[in-house]
Amino acid sequence: MASILGFGARLPEDVLDNAALGREFGVEPAWILQMCGIETRRVAAPGETVVDLAEGAARDCLERVAMAPADLGGIVVGTGTPHRQFPGVSASLQQRLGVAGIPAFDIHLASVGGFFALATAVELCARYGPILVVGAERMSEVMARPPRSKETAILFGDGAGACIVAPGPGPVSVVDIQMQSDGTFADELSLAFGGTLAMNGRAVILQANRKLRQSLAQLLERNGVAADEVGLWLFHQANLNLLKQMAQGLGIAEERVYLNLPRYGNTSAASILIAAAEAQKEGRFRPGHAVMAAFGAGMGWGSALLAVADTGTDPRWPTWAN
Amino acid sequence: MDIRAAIRKTIQDMAQAPLPGDDGESLFNAGVIDSFALVELLSKLEAVLGVQVPDTDLMPSRFETVNKMVAYFQQRM
């Protein structure tokens, strides 16, 4: 058994709102909101790197879990926007945390990278001990490449999320987790070296809908859990309409689906871990079941069933005291 | 079964705009369906026509017009 001890996040301070994007692209802010459901995004400051974001999320997570970097057994970073071709964000993060000797590597996947890093950590932790999982992205660097397209520029934001996965029981046990990939549609969502984002939005939505629904149906059936028994649904924050459609298709009450997409946009590999970190702070994890699910370039997708324990008055999990 | 009629009726039942008179016209461009409606449309067509669309065939370009849908489902029935 593996457990998630806690989450963390780091969002840049700078806010990019629809008014600014509207002025740039000559469209009404209301059109942007209608297209994607996003009101604001966070953008890294000049000189603020993806490693800075990853480190911020990692340290926030370590502090929340009350764990020293020296206690870590490994580091796995999911990112589609590393600061260099190699070595990855994980190497720089390991250096900053001062934890030489433990395995540290990147999972180079946009959107689903944070989730795949989590799933990998679940497998690794029994052998190596507590694994720091980070999803970090600096999408603004990609979005800045000319020619800027309003269809994609409005969607993405920067940020990083993190969690620590350890062997044995804990506040959030990983009951079941699965990853899947299908390279058939790799070109429908891709980024060439130095290029701009190529995205066939219709194809991505079609694939995401089908594959995520199948993954979730399998996951719940295999574990004998009904959708309405799940108290919290944490999805990759990609698209408001997609999330609403997923909720409707699965028969989930919308209020059980955590949503921070309007505030941060799509932060790619970071999004599901940022969402989990905020859900933890807001007391959205309640004793019972929770589900995580993500989809992204590759194409890759996956889902996880979590069991949330009742730990009484632990202040790190706020509403548990209520 | 008249596949074309079944497809047209299924689209009409959930259309966001009138169906174009020309079955070769893009349903996306005509505002009849969007990406999200296509997900639901395919699910309904699978049930109505008794044909499972495999993931590998799930490309919007295959289902952009009534004619393309008719050709696709005819091949698989």
Strand content of chain B: under 5%
List the domain count of chain A as a whole number: 2
Question: What proportion of the residues of chain B is helical, as a percent range?
Answer: 40-55%
Task: Label the CATH architecture of chain B.
Answer: Orthogonal Bundle
Domain unit count of chain B: 1
Biggest sheet character of chain A: 9 strands, mixed
Q: Using only CA atoms, what is the Rg of chain A?
A: 18 Å
Tally of helical segments of chain A: 11
Q: What is the CATH H-level superfamily of chain B? A: ACP-like
The low-confidence runs of chain A, each spanning 5 or more residues with pLDDT under 50, are none
State the total count of DSSP E strands of chain B: 0
Q: Terminal Cα separation of chain A, in Å?
A: 28 Å
One letter per element, helices H and strands E, the order of chain B comes to HHH
What does this structure look like?
The complex is a heterodimer of chains A (322) and B (77). Chain A has helices at 18-25, 29-36, 50-65, 89-97, 113-128, 139-143, 150-153, 201-222, 240-250, 261-264, 271-281, and strands at 2-10, 14-17, 40-43, 74-78, 104-107, 131-137, 159-167, 172-181, 189-191, 197-199, 230-235, 288-296, 300-308. Chain A folds into 2 domains: 2-167, 3-Layer(aba) Sandwich (Peroxisomal Thiolase, Chain A, domain 1); 172-321, Peroxisomal Thiolase, Chain A, domain 1, CATH 3.40.47.10. Helices cover 35% and strands 25% of the residues of chain A. Chain B is mostly helical and 77 residues long. Chain B has a single domain (3-76), classed as ACP-like (Non-ribosomal Peptide Synthetase Peptidyl Carrier Protein, Chain A), CATH 1.10.1200.10. The A-B interface holds A 182, 184-185, 200-203, 205-207, 209-211, 241-242, 245 and B 28, 35-36, 38-40, 42, 55-56, 58-60.
